[in-house]
Specification:
Number of strands: 11
Helix content: 40-55%
Radius of gyration: 22 Å
Shape: globular
Number of helices: 15
Structural class: alpha/beta
């Protein structure tokens, strides 16, 4: 057993839960990415699991014992983001009573995650560009150049390509961050994940709340599986927790679910889609999410580019 494997055995690493083909592709891609140090751009709607995927990749990698540090670009003011990222020297600004190391320094050879990177101002983007390009930085108020050893992962629920077109995101930074772009499909496009995720959340939350609830009534489960979950996995988890608190017996019943979910499965007894229809629609959605980039779509789907082209022709996907 190598040292990295030994460390992984001592760490409770996060797990990507799901039985959908899209999730199987994501897991395979995560294993491949974990062995690299390339900068990643993880794209997906809010609540799809971008931060979880970043953690999965980090803990599968050889530097899993190193820190995994996150900066929320959407909630921190620009000055604070700069200080958090680069650190500062004593007296660098009002209130800087002592020197402080930034995340790039503290991460060592670990991973720094920039959540909602699209929220960075153009000025901050320019400073980040140098770090990504040259892998060097200085603390605020300092003159000593330091080298970034950490891996960088950027997360966004925004179309950065459109941001480039609109002038809100630097094109040069976009290309440097998207060395390896990874798109996570929304939960409505990977319905095979809904049931295992619901059961996973119920098991964990029942333990947390010391509840005797251990399953779902069939009607409740059908309603959950047919709902689109615009809030994705985060909404599903919150739904399960609310239902668990309301449940009185050993199962979550349909009546414990919000009306938005119970009303969505009206007519759910209609004709079910064929396997070919499901596959066709899934491929169409992945191509849409990757903006027609066939190599990226094939990687997410876990098939070769040639196979993807054959399936596009078979299903008449333009």
């Amino acid at each position: 057993m190598d040292s990295a494997q030994g460390v992984r055995n001592q760490i409770t690493a996060p797990v990507w839960v799901g039985d959908d083909p899209a999730s199987e592709s994501i897991r395979k891609f995560a294993f491949k990415l974990a062995g690299t140090s390339s900068t990643l751009l993880i794209v997906g709607e809010s609540g799809t699991g971008k931060e979880l995927l970043a953690a999965v990749i980090h803990y599968l990698g050889p530097n899993c014992a190193e820190p995994l540090l996150k900066i929320d670009c959407a909630t921190l003011p620009e000055a604070l983001i700069e200080s958090e990222l680069f650190g500062h020297e004593k007296g660098a600004f009002t209130g800087a009573s002592s020197a402080k190391a930034g995340r790039l320094e503290l991460a060592g050879q670990g991973t720094v995650v920039l959540d909602e990177v699209a929220a960075l101002t153009l000025g901050m983007q320019a400073k980040l560009l140098r770090v990504v390009d040259q892998r060097t930085f200085e603390r605020l108020g300092g003159t000593m150049t330091q080298r970034m050893e950490a891996r960088l992962m950027a997360l966004t629920s925004t179309d950065l390509g459109r941001g480039v077109e609109e002038g809100s995101f630097r094109e040069d930074l976009y290309f440097r961050l998207s060395v390896i772009p990874v798109t996570i499909p929304p939960l409505r496009d990977r319905r095979g994940d809904i049931r295992p995720l619901a059961e996973h959340f119920l098991d964990r939350l029942a333990t947390l709340h010391r509840s005797s609830v251990r399953g779902f009534a069939s009607e409740a489960l059908r309603a959950i599986e047919t709902y689109d979950f615009p809030g994705n996995v985060r909404e599903l988890r919150n739904t399960i927790e609310r239902a668990l608190v309301q449940a009185q017996k050993d199962k979550i019943e349909r009546e414990h679910l919000p009306a938005s979910i119970t009303q969505s499965d009206v007519g759910a007894g209609a004709r079910r889609a064929t396997l070919a229809e499901v596959e066709s629609e899934h491929i169409r959605q992945i191509l849409k999410l990757t903006r027609g980039r066939k190599s990226e779509a094939a990687a997410i789907l876990g098939i070769s580019r040639k196979t993807l082209l054959e399936k596009r022709k078979r299903y008449h996907l333009d």
